[in-house]
């Protein structure tokens, strides 16, 4: 059974443009939150993330990417470099937030809250690597998927489709 949270949509985070946003700013639909990195073996997941964004955006879905350099320095660039890479290499149209830490005492508040969610094996705790995914549904359910689970995995797609209006 997925975790349920009513406050995730109100936790502020910094945008790539230097402003402040919340997940609630993207509506009350389905949000896929993912910590991303440009120099990781899992970086090709950007392609599937963008495919999901394009396929479901008109039904109230969005991906929000959070660059993170916490895993072997795999996101070393400036925000301008990261945004340029995402746009030119992967055609990313979904929002990319300011670079964050996802583990440790200085983890972003949103990630401190997300880490309380259980994964498909019932385990909570630290983010294991780049491209860990959290699907937040309109009713506050949080579905956690570890990095090796691709964005277009049937389990993720089923959660997205079941929570979106037809």
Give a concise summary.
The two termini are 23 Å apart.
Q: Within the largest sheet, what's the order of strands?
A: 1-7-6-4-5
Helical proportion, percent range: 10-25%
Overall shape: globular
Would you identify the CATH H-level superfamily? Glutaredoxin
Number of helices: 4
> Which H/E pattern describes the elements?
EEEEHEHHEEH
Span from first to last CA? Answer: 23 Å
The overall number of domains is: 1
Structural class determined from secondary elements: alpha+beta
- Using the coordinates above, name the CATH class: Alpha Beta
- CATH architecture term: 3-Layer(aba) Sandwich
Report the CATH topology name: Glutaredoxin
The biggest beta sheet reads:
5 strands, mixed
Number-wise, the strands total: 7
Q: C-alpha Rg, in Å?
A: 14 Å
Strand proportion: 15-25%
Mean pLDDT: 94
- Residue ranges: pLDDT <50 for 5 or more in a row? none
Chart the SSEs and their pairings.
Blueprint: E1 3-4, E2 13-14, E3 20-21, E4 30-36, H1 45-56, E5 61-67, H2 79-90, H3 109-114, E6 133-136, E7 141-145, H4 154-163
Parallel strand pairs: 4-5
Antiparallel strand pairs: 1-7, 2-3, 4-6, 6-7
What does this structure look like?
The chain has 166 residues and is of the alpha+beta class. It has a single domain (3-163), classed as Glutaredoxin, CATH 3.40.30.10. It has helices spanning 45-56, 79-90, 109-114, 154-163, and strands spanning 3-4, 13-14, 20-21, 30-36, 61-67, 133-136, 141-145. The strands form two sheets. The protein has a five-stranded mixed β-sheet, covered by helices on one side. The protein starts with a strand and ends with a helix.
């Amino acid at each position: 059974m997925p975790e349920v949270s009513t406050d995730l949509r109100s936790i502020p985070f910094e945008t790539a443009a230097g402003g402040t946003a919340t997940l609630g700013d993207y509506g009350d639909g389905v949000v896929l939150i993912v910590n991303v990195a440009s120099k990781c073996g899992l970086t090709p997941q950007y392609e599937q993330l963008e495919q999901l964004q394009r396929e479901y955006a008109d039904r109230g879905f969005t991906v929000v990417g959070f660059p993170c350099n916490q895993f072997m320095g795999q996101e070393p660039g400036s925000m301008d470099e990261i945004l340029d890479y995402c746009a030119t290499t992967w055609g990313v149209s979904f929002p990319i937030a300011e670079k964050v830490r996802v583990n440790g005492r200085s983890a972003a508040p949103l990630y401190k809250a997300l880490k309380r969610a259980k994964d498909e094996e019932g385990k909570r705790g630290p983010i294991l690597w780049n491209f860990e995914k959290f699907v937040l549904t309109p009713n506050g359910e949080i579905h956690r998927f570890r990095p090796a689970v691709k964005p277009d995995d049937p389990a993720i797609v089923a959660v997205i489709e079941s929570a979106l209006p037809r």
